[in-house]
Design goal:
The complex is a heterodimer of chains A (442) and B (394). Chain A has 442 residues and is mainly alpha-helical. Chain A contains 23 helices and four strands. A four-stranded antiparallel β-sheet of chain A has the order 1-2-4-3. In chain A, strand 1 and strand 2 form a beta hairpin. Chain A starts with a helix and ends in a 5-residue tail after the last helix. Helices cover 9% and strands 45% of the residues of chain B. In chain B, a hairpin with a 4-residue loop joins strand 22 and strand 23. The chains are: A mainly alpha (442), B mainly beta (394). At the A-B interface, helix 6, helix 7, helix 8, helix 9 and helix 10 of A face strand 2, helix 1, helix 2 and strand 20 of B. Chain A: InterPro entries: DEP_dom (IPR000591), G-protein_gamma-like_dom (IPR015898), GGL_sf (IPR036284), RGS (IPR016137), RGS6/7/9/11 (IPR047016), RGS6/7/9/11_DHEX_sf (IPR047017), RGS_DHEX (IPR040759), RGS_sf (IPR036305). Chain A: Keywords: Signal transduction inhibitor. Chain A: One of its GO terms (biological process) is negative regulation of signal transduction. Chain A: Pfam families: DEP, RGS, RGS_DHEX. Chain A: It comes from Pygocentrus nattereri (Red-bellied piranha).
Chain lengths: 442, 394
């Protein structure tokens, strides 16, 4: 959304704005509803209805606010004037809209002009007065100071600021819980049980995220749809479900060390970065790609950090030391590019190594790979070729003689695999031979 | 252009605590300063009346709880099944039991799949068995205690953990020699002051997460048996836990007899989120495959889906005809289906998005104690008090 707003404000290609008259004073840089809609239609070549829809969202989220009827948050396609909200108040800056701020704002309004508060604002004001009574002096003092400072500004600017603030508060009604915590923390130290109860309530949703609910709920539908083809219980699996036909071809084709993976498996790597990393074959492919890009040390560093995090407690110090020598020391052979602050913090922490000392650095590298290397890998020739060559297994024909049971072989135990790698090499061909004997066509 | 002239510093070092946080511009003695919101609150609270007792705080806590529910209810605009109306309805499922394992001599209490998708470990009142599925049982280990309520397979597939009424969680390495006495190699890892209800390995063989009837969960180092982190916050027995499949892999959810499901941060031991809408003990919790939500099965005969980002319950799976509690839940690979085993000997399969029941499975002759989908989603296994384990693909 912000990209749209920024491009709207572009001096050459953006909206045409002119001074509008509101009551007596002239408001600079305002635009009409019709202009907004027209500009959206023209810039994005969409229909009028869609432009109106988008425009409405911009207003509802607070990026544009109406001047004439500030409480009516919708976009009217006529001469009603609108203005852009300053970035200070954008929802994305995540400025915590606390009770205290709201109280100060209402107090300011009250002082400025008695009776200007409307019904629900009066209610809020009284409720706040009761609730945060202990800080009321502070609130009033702040309100007075802010009013005094604003009197020193030009009238037009003052009106603009007032409008902006008013628009902001109309969108955000603050949560009512934050201030509670600090009260309790300061008062009774014995009430630990109650305190920990209350601490939980800090983590509550501000009401302004109401619109995000819809997005979250939709994400479940999206996830299910995306994975539907990969769910054997829903769609069945090719060549066949091993539990039904006793044919373990499906497991063999999807095992970790197969040379050519199935198409579904390769597709799954494009769903999320985590899918790619969780699949050992995917990880190998990514490493090959990164080696071409000369950034393989990122993945190696990430893997080394995972080992530290999940490994034995007794070996942590040694492992951390190795990681430092290989990846973090100045002039190291596989030096990773971390920003200076994280690097400083990590180096400081390495002096007293513990399990999570590399977490910040690991997180940094992980997101670096996710935002940068991963999308490029998905667009690369390497991935595309693999996808094109990947196998789509054919469904095995049902055996003609239903009473002939296939031999059930015990799969090689993982304990066996770790103990003797050679035996593993021998076991696989023999299992493959046994399956080749049965009538399945690939 | 919008006004840039009066833009204040919105992010940076706070003037009083010098941490980098979003800032507020306030006036102190007629001077404008930049404080972070925490410092503002603390400053504003100075000089408040002391002498609040535990009872007044408790009353406040109850008040806040009520307000919280109110706020949450306000967000109740969008329901999952409304959004899912556009999704295709699932056809009738035909699920047949393909294989039954009858090796246990007693009630089957718990089972877990190995990551190789074909092996599993199951525990019962006396014995813990590990079995490769195309062939029947491979190993059996007699446990020293009567009820083995929790068992888990390590990610490498070489080690098994289990525990129960002995208040401990023990780890057994698996070996090939069938004659070898596995019980001799056992290693005690976790020690609780009450029975062990659930255990699970984190991403490696080296760390074990356990939950217990003493109301706590704990994270242990397998090698040394040391307690790495403990999680306090339940006010009654904790019955089950599940690790989040997220990128950072640092959280898990636990459900207990206090009707609460809590989400914890493994690193700090903090309780991040709490959900209390069930009307009775929560028997089982399981994360949705994407990690953004989790489902719970409870003695109040319902299963519910909770969304972590929205911080509320988004769906209830219940029917008037179901009056027995759900003992165990698990999702299919895509998260579209929820398999739930009940105490009325059935397994109900729910459509997660639409909230409707898709199939019922009969076949057990006693309570279904555990339901688990295999790691690649090809089949699911149910264990029951009638001493059998059933495998059901579609």
């Amino acid at each position: 959304m912000e990209r749209v707003i920024v491009s709207m404000q572009d001096p050459d290609m953006g909206m045409k704005m002119r001074n509008q008259r509101l009551l007596i004073t002239v408001i600079p840089h305002a635009m009409t509803g019709r202009d907004i809609v027209d500009w959206l239609i023209q810039k994005y070549t969409i229909t009028e209805e869609e432009a109106l829809h988008i425009g409405n969202f911009l207003v509802k989220y607070g990026y544009i606010y109406p001047l004439k009827e500030p409480r009516n948050l919708c976009l009217k396609q006529d001469e009603t004037p609108y203005r852009f909200q300053t970035p200070y108040y954008w929802t994305s800056t995540r400025w915590p809209a606390s009770e205290l701020d709201y109280a100060i704002y209402l107090a300011k309004k009250n002082i400025r002009k008695q009776g200007e508060l409307i019904e629900y604002e009066k209610e809020c004001y009284n409720a706040l007065h009761k609730r945060i009574n202990h800080t009321w002096d502070f609130v009033v003092m702040q309100a007075r100071e802010q009013l005094r400072a604003s009197k020193q500004r030009r009238k037009a600017d003052r009106i603009v600021l007032e409008c902006q603030e008013q628009a902001y508060w109309l969108i955000n009604r603050p949560p009512v819980r934050q201030i509670r915590l600090y009260r309790l923390v300061q008062s009774d130290r014995r009430a630990t049980v109650v305190q920990s109860d209350v601490m939980l309530y800090m983590w509550c949703l501000p009401l302004k995220n109401k619109l995000c609910m819809f997005v979250w709920v939709c994400s479940f539908v999206k996830y299910c749809e995306q994975y539907q083809d990969h769910d054997p219980i829903m769609q069945g699996c090719l060549p066949s479900n091993p539990w039904i036909t006793d044919d373990i071809m499906y497991w063999n084709m999807n095992s970790e060390t197969v040379t050519m993976p199935t198409k579904l498996r390769v597709e799954r790597w494009s769903f999320s970065f985590m899918e790619l990393l969780n699949d050992p074959l995917g990880r190998k492919e990514l490493l090959t790609y990164l080696e071409k890009e000369f950034s393989a040390e990122n993945l190696c560093f990430w893997q080394a950090c995972e080992e530290v995090r999940h490994g034995e407690a007794s070996k942590i110090a040694a492992k951390v030391d190795e990681v430092y020598k290989q990846f973090l020391a100045p002039g190291a052979s596989r030096w990773v590019n971390i920003d200076s602050k994280t690097m400083e913090k990590t180096l400081e922490g390495i002096k007293h190594p513990h399990r999570f000392v590399l977490d910040d650095a690991q997180m940094h590298i992980y997101f670096l790979m996710k935002k940068d290397s991963y999308p490029r890998y998905l667009k690369s020739e390497l991935y595309k070729n693999l996808l094109a060559k990947a196998i789509v297994p054919q469904e095995t024909k049902k055996s003609v003689f239903p009473f002939m049971r296939r031999q059930r072989h015990s799969s090689p135990s993982p304990a066996l695999v770790t103990q003797t790698a050679e035996d593993n090499g021998k076991a696989k061909p023999s299992a493959a031979k046994a399956n080749a004997g049965t009538a399945s066509q690939i | 252009m919008c006004d840039q002239t009066f833009v204040a510093i919105t992010f940076g070092p706070c003037d009083s605590c010098s941490q980098n946080k979003p800032l507020m511009n306030i006036y102190l003695q007629n001077e404008p300063v930049n404080y972070c919101s925490l410092c503002v609150e603390l400053m504003a609270c100075q000089g408040l009346a002391k002498g609040e007792t535990v009872s007044t705080l408790r009353a406040e806590s109850e008040n806040l709880k009520a307000k919280l529910e109110e706020e949450r209810a306000k967000l109740h605009d969008v329901e999952l099944h409304q959004v899912a109306e556009k999704v295709e309805t699932l056809g009738q499922f035909v699920i047949k039991t393909r294989r039954t394992l009858k090796g246990h001599g007693n009630k089957v209490l718990c089972m877990d799949w190995c990551r190789d998708k074909r092996r599993m470990v199951s525990s019962s009142q006396v014995i813990m068995r590990s079995a490769a599925v195309c062939v029947l049982q491979e190993h059996a280990v007699t446990m020293p205690c009567t009820w083995v309520m929790a068992c888990a397979y390590a990610p490498s597939g070489c080690v098994i953990a289990c525990g129960g009424l002995d208040n401990k969680c023990s780890v057994y390495p698996l070996s090939l020699d069938k004659n070898e006495n596995l019980a001799a190699k056992k290693k005690s890892v976790a020690m609780h002051t009450n029975y062990l209800s659930a255990c699970s390995f984190t991403n490696s063989d080296m760390q074990l997460l356990t939950s217990s009837g003493d109301g706590t969960c704990a994270l242990w180092d397998v090698e040394s048996g040391q307690l790495l982190q403990s999680f306090h916050g339940h006010s009654a027995d904790v019955l089950s836990l599940d690790l989040a499949p997220s990128e950072t892999g640092n959280t898990f959810v636990s459900g207990g007899c206090d009707k609460k499901a809590n989400v914890w941060d493994m690193r700090s031991g903090q309780n991040i989120q709490s959900f209390e809408t069930h009307e009775s003990d929560i028997n089982s919790v399981k994360y949705y495959p994407s990690g953004d939500a989790f489902a719970t099965g409870s003695d109040d005969a319902t299963c519910r889906l909770y969304d972590l980002r929205a911080d509320r319950e988004v769906a209830i799976y219940s029917k008037e005809s179901i009056i027995f509690g759900a003992s165990s839940v698990d999702f299919s690979l895509s998260g579209r289906l929820l398999f739930a085993g009940y105490n009325d000997y059935n397994i109900n399969v729910w459509d997660v998005l639409k909230g409707t029941r898709v199939a019922i499975l009969f076949g057990h002759e006693n309570r279904v104690s555990t339901v688990r989908v295999s790691p690649d989603g090809t089949a699911f296994c149910s264990g029951s008090w009638d001493n059998t384990l059933d495998f059901n693909p579609v």
